[in-house]
Amino acid sequence: MPNEIEAVFIANLRSFIEVRGYKSVEKFAWEHGLSKGGIGKILQGKRIPRFDTAVRLAQALDITLNDLYPLDGKSYPVSQIKKYKLDKVKAAQKLLLEVLEVGVPQKRKK
């Protein structure tokens, strides 16, 4: 039975795999050269990932270790991750519009 920290890690790993569009753990493992059996055991709470394995999982998902092991101890449901990504896109669009309205300052020639 996984402890609280491991349970959060497992929940976040599942959520990020789903958000990244992988239909199965096997596909995720295959695309990133990871062991599907090893990932399966981690997701079942039967194995605790070593540090280097956790780093490889984070790199494969293009996230940080803090996303898998958040300091606040909270897990991220898929809906929250999708909203977070949408908020980041909206913020980037807003910044781009502001730059286009104001214009990028030009360097003056001497």
Write a concise keyword list for the protein shown above:
110 residues; mainly alpha; 434 Repressor (Amino-terminal Domain); 64% helix
Calculate the mean pLDDT score and round it.
79
Largest sheet: none
CATH topology of the domain at 4-76: 434 Repressor (Amino-terminal Domain)
What is the chains' assembly state?
single chain
Radius of gyration, rounded?
19 Å
Secondary-structure arrangement, i.e. CATH architecture of the domain at 4-76: Orthogonal Bundle
Name the helicity range. Answer: 55-70%
Shape: elongated
Q: Structural class of the secondary structure composition? A: mainly alpha
Strand residues, percent: under 5%
Order of helices and strands: HHHHHH
Number of helices: 6
Describe this structure in words.
The chain is mainly α. The chain has a domain at 4-76: 434 Repressor (Amino-terminal Domain) (Orthogonal Bundle), CATH 1.10.260.40. The chain has helices at residues 4-19, 25-31, 36-43, 51-60, 65-68, 78-102. Helix 2 (25-31) packs across helix 3 (36-43). It is elongated. 12% of the residues are buried.
Summarize it:
This protein has 110 residues and is mostly helical.
Helix and strand arrangement:
Elements: H1 4-19, H2 25-31, H3 36-43, H4 51-60, H5 65-68, H6 78-102
